Request: fold
Amino acid sequence: MKNGVSLIDCDVHNSWADSRELLPFLDPYFRDFLERGELPGGRGSFPHAHRPWLHPEGFMRTDAFPPDGGPPGSSYEFLREQLLDRYDVEYAILTGDEAIEVSTLANPRLASALASAANDWTIETWLARDSRLRASLVVAPQDPEGAVAEIHRRGEHPGFVQVLVSTGSQRPYGDPCYHPIWAAAAEVGLPIAAHLGGQGGVNSNPTGCGPPTFFLEAHALLCETGMGHVASLICHGVFERWPGLRFVLIEAGVAWLPAILWRLDADYKALRKETPWLKMLPSEYAAKHIRLSTQPLEQPKDTRQLWNVLETIDGEHTLLYASDYPHWDFDDPTLLHLPPAWKERIFSENARELYGLPARAEVALAR
Amino acid sequence: MKSAERFFACRADEVPPGGRVLREIDGKSVGVFNVAGKFFALHNRCPHKGGALCLGPVTGTNVSSDDFRYVYSRQGRVIRCAWHGWEFELESGRALADPTVRAKTFPVVVEEGNVYLMI
Reply:
């Protein structure tokens, strides 16, 4: 950043302008879906099931449409100007845009084929263009076999720093049906990340009482799927099975985590017989294995109330700065209210450790 | 600290293996348990929230496992507090979820068919 603090942005949405950009990376059978198949938004749109609550104004920052007329996030040059150069970003972790929506599709083979194509497109279209970019390897969680194959195919490419799924899912992510995916991620040493999305299609409702009506509700409650995944991953002993594994929860809020961990710790004392494989309290697994992106950071009137809450989860060491560029709820790093003493860790060092990113000074020296 | 005094609790044959009695002794509610012929005594007050620990079921439990399977063991050696269900070893009073938490236990002496507690 301009004030001397390094900045690693852990949620940057890069997009295609037209889904047909994926054609060179698809086998003929799957190309048909994009060329002649039914698509949710006409030719050029991406195959996925959409959630039934819609942002009344569109969910993009309205100043983020590039001059070439494409959708926000589709122009590298404009993303560089509006984000990378403007905030002097050291690294941007790309999370794609529609790619994680493959998890909504009923056909798991199509979902995995599209995820693979998106990953190859990311390498060619983005990673090759700027050494500040790192990316997320998208997999289709409803196709564990395909997801494992994709991790083996591309997981060791140095540009990919995590395996990415949507928070929308058919079952919570501790479920044994997903274990082959986490085993493959652990094998290649990549964290698992779950980003808000995939809420529709074959996936469960994002709120346990049924589908929300308004985008307002759904967005304010984006924490609920995060709660389910965190509890499930811990209770199923995923972090006992793969002690090196890290789970990154992106865009699911953060202030709720202490309350859920308090509840899990308290209930574990009485119910430990259900999960005898746990060797620590749930909160201890969270502190060691779970990282959360800040955006969209909760905004109480008195910021100190939030800081007090975040202190209970050692926010200095567990939070990762994210902007969510170019979406409507973008968090500008220069305006984010965080305890000054935590900024170095949250703005860069936690992500640097998690993703093993070399310091810029070291990169410069190596040249 | 006051040195322990010896109190008569019950006749040994009042508490068959697997059984228990509750007694008021020296102003305390105390449970006396027979675990396969050995006697143990616990303060009837759970260290968690002061609940009626000795009124809960005596059970086994799934012991800590390394292979992600359920291993049911310690049958008859674990008491589950009547209030919130925390599990404690009858023998040591240790909570299974957190061995640093202990229910108060009292040493037991059996002489000539009588069970005495050191309180």
Remarks:
- The first strand of chain A starts at residue 8 and ends at 12.
- The mean pLDDT of chain A is 96.
- The beta strands of chain A are 8-12, 91-94, 133-138, 160-166, 192-195, 247-250, 290-293, 319-320.
- The two ends of chain A are 22 Å apart (CA to CA).
